[in-house]
C-alpha cells in the first residue's frame, strides 16, 4: 500500500488553507487512482511560527480529517527550514512539496505521479513561462539562473522551484544532509537520481499576500550561490593575480620611462585612483570571504535547523529537533 505525502509550509496563511484543500483533493484523488488500490495520502502542513489563526485552523482540520497532519515550529525559521521539517516528517513513498497559495496548480500532481510510476525518482515541475511576473522579476530570475549555473558545480534547472515529486529514496538521502544554511533547490539538484520534468503554467495567487519581498529574494540568491559553489572565491583569486600583474607591468613601465626620458611620475591623482580601486576590490573580496565564513560559523555551531514545538495527533515531539547530520 503506497502513501503520497503533500508537504505544505505555511506562514500566516489563514485565508489560504481551506481553499487549498478544496482545490487539491480532486487532483490528488486522481493521482491515488493511478497508484492502485489502497493508496493513501497525507497532507502535512508545517506551521512556520504563524501569528494569525493558522495554528487554530490547522488544529481543527487535523481533528476533522484523518488525512491532514500538521507540525508547528517554535518560531519563524524561514521557508527553507520549514520545508526541510516537512520532508523530515513526511511518511509517504513519494513526497511533493507545494505552496498553499495555489499558484502551483494541484492538477500537475497527477502528471508527476504518472512519471514516478514510470520510474522517475525526482519529477520537476517547470514553469512554461513567467508572463505572470513583472519584467524586472523575469529579468532578475533569468540572470540569477545564468550566473548560478555558470558558477555551480552541478546544473540547477531554470524556472523550477520547490514544487516537485521526490521518491522515498531521494527523501532519505536529503534527510542525511547536514547543511544549516539551506538552499533546497540546490540540494534537490545535487542528489541526482532519475529525473523527469513536467511543464505547467503558474496561476495567480489564490488568497493572501506574498511573504517574499525583494530583500528576502536577494538573501535567497546569495544563499543559493554560496551554498552551490566556491567559484566566487576562486574568481577573486584570479582577479587579484591579474591586478598584481597589471600593477607590476605598470611599475616597470614607469621605471623605464623615468630612466629613458627623465619624466617624473605623476603623483597625487594616479595614486588616489589606484588606492581607491584596490581598496574597493579589497572590500568586495572581503565581503565574499565573509559570506563563506558566516556559513562556516553557522555549520560549526551545529544548532538544529528547526525546533518542533508541537506535533498534534502524534507522539510528543522533543523540544529540540535532532541535528541534521
TrEMBL record:
Residues 5-172 form the Glycosyltransferase 2-like domain. Keywords: Cell membrane, Glycosyltransferase, Membrane, Transferase, Transmembrane, Transmembrane helix. It is a multi-pass membrane protein. Pfam families: Glycos_transf_2. InterPro entries: Glyco_trans_2-like, Glycosyltransferase_2, Nucleotide-diphossugar_trans. The chain crosses the membrane at residues 235-256, 268-293. Signal peptide: none annotated. GO terms for cellular component: plasma membrane. It is found in: Cell membrane. The keyword Membrane applies. Gene3D superfamilies: Spore Coat Polysaccharide Biosynthesis Protein SpsA, Chain A. It comes from the Bacteria. GO terms for molecular function: glycosyltransferase activity. The keyword Translocase does not apply. Belongs to the glycosyltransferase 2 family. GtrB subfamily. This is Bactoprenol glucosyl transferase.
Amino acid at each position: 500500500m503506497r502513501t503520497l505525502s503533500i508537504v505544505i509550509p505555511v506562514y500566516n496563511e489563514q485565508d489560504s488553507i481551506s481553499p487549498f484543500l478544496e482545490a487539491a483533493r480532486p487532483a490528488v484523488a486522481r493521482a491515488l487512482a493511478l497508484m492502485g488500490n489502497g493508496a493513501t495520502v497525507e497532507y502535512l502542513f508545517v506551521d512556520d511560527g504563524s501569528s494569525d489563526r493558522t495554528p487554530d485552523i490547522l488544529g481543527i482540520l487535523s481533528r476533522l480529517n484523518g488525512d491532514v497532519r500538521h507540525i508547528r515550529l517554535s518560531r519563524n525559521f524561514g521557508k527553507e527550514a520549514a520545508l526541510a521539517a516537512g520532508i523530515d516528517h513526511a511518511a509517504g513513498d513519494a513526497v511533493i512539496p507545494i505552496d498553499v497559495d495555489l499558484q502551483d496548480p494541484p492538477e500537475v500532481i497527477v502528471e508527476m505521479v504518472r512519471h514516478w510510476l514510470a520510474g522517475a525518482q525526482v519529477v520537476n515541475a517547470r514553469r512554461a513561462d513567467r508572463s505572470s511576473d513583472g519584467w524586472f522579476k523575469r529579468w532578475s530570475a533569468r540572470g540569477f539562473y545564468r550566473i548560478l549555473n555558470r558558477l555551480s558545480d552541478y546544473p540547477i534547472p531554470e524556472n523550477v522551484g520547490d514544487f516537485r515529486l521526490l521518491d522515498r529514496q531521494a527523501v532519505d538521502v536529503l534527510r542525511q544532509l547536514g547543511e544549516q544554511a539551506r538552499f533546497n533547490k540546490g540540494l534537490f539538484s545535487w542528489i541526482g537520481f532519475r529525473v523527469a520534468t513536467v511543464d505547467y503554467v503558474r496561476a495567480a495567487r489564490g488568497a493572501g499576500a506574498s511573504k517574499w519581498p525583494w530583500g528576502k529574494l536577494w538573501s535567497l540568491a546569495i544563499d543559493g550561490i554560496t551554498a552551490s559553489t566556491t567559484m566566487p572565491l576562486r574568481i577573486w583569486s584570479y582577479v587579484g593575480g591579474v591586478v598584481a600583474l597589471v600593477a607590476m607591468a605598470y611599475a616597470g613601465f614607469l621605471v623605464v620611462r623615468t630612466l629613458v626620458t627623465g619624466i617624473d611620475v605623476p603623483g597625487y591623482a594616479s595614486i588616489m585612483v589606484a588606492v581607491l580601486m584596490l581598496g574597493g576590490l579589497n572590500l568586495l573580496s572581503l565581503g565574499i570571504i565573509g559570506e563563506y565564513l558566516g556559513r562556516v560559523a553557522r555549520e560549526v555551531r551545529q544548532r538544529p535547523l528547526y525546533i518542533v514545538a508541537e506535533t498534534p495527533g502524534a507522539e510528543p515531539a522533543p523540544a529540540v529537533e535532532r541535528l541534521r547530520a
